[in-house]
Amino acid sequence: xxISWATGLSGGVVDQVFFYILAITIFLLxxxxxxxxxxxxxxxxxxxxxxxxxxxxxxxxxxxTVIPTLLVLTMFYYGMTGFNFLKKAPADAMKVKVVxxxxxxxxEYENGIKTTELMVPVGKPVKLSLTSQDVIHGFYAPAFRVxxxxxxxxxxxxxxxxxxxxxxxxxxTQYCGLQHATMSTxxxxxxxxxxxxxxxxxxxEIEATKxxxxxxxxxxxxxxxxxxxIDDTPRAGPTLxxxxxxxxxxxxxxxxxxxxxxxxxLRKSLLEPNAEVxxxxxxxxxxxxxxxxxxxxxxxxxxxxx
Length: 306
Ligand SMILES: [Cu+2]
What we know:
By secondary structure, the protein is of the alpha+beta class. The protein has seven helices and 13 strands. It folds into three domains: 80 residues, Helix Hairpins; 106 residues, Cupredoxins -  blue copper proteins (Immunoglobulin-like, Sandwich), CATH 2.60.40; 91 residues, Cytochrome c-like domain (Cytochrome Bc1 Complex, Chain D, domain 2). The radius of gyration is 28 Å and the shape is elongated. The site of copper (II) ion has 7 residues, from loops.
């Protein structure tokens, strides 16, 4: 579903305030419209040829001051308690780091797993710490009714607690450059046991790279593996299996061109990811923060992916 119905604890809290205010607004709209029409008929010229001037009606004034004030105060009360609820994550929340960059999201879990879609277990609160590597982005999960700006140089937080299994949209709400519209992902809520297995498996994969050459470790640590498989599994980016020495069709400033995937090509892919963009893929590959030595290791590693 494009915009899903409210879910999670925050969804319920936000909707309560929203519908409370909406109900009062609709009631007042009805009351005022009714009185307007009624007075127009009741006090029309034929029935009331000489207009009379009404001076002071103390009770009327008290009523129309006190009732709206009380109504507005209850709205403030519900708004404030809802706001406090949304601002304070429970202590037992699962923590996930979120890095936004032009134009993708990266999620980093406490055990080191990295993903491009946010995987969470059902029924457990999740606390996100959000930062940006480049410009201001906005993390927005409409189904959970939560939204937070993601600003370079600072860490903002946000929390939610999913109450049902499913897949929910995430959008970027700050116009952050050309491919802003493609900067969306999903929150995937899994049953507890399924999540536990996934989390464990990810941990084992990380452990498995420990004894491997530096290039393989970097490929994992720098999050390349999140978008590139080294077998044929499709991910956000093309598989890197058998890339070296192959011919690739790329778009350079909108023009199609055939290039040999040699060392120059691999290096350029890392230094200027959006200069030679593989045909059929969006230019979402982020500029990793890589040292010269790390680039060399990664290139050596990619050359060996047969
Ligand atoms: Cu963005």
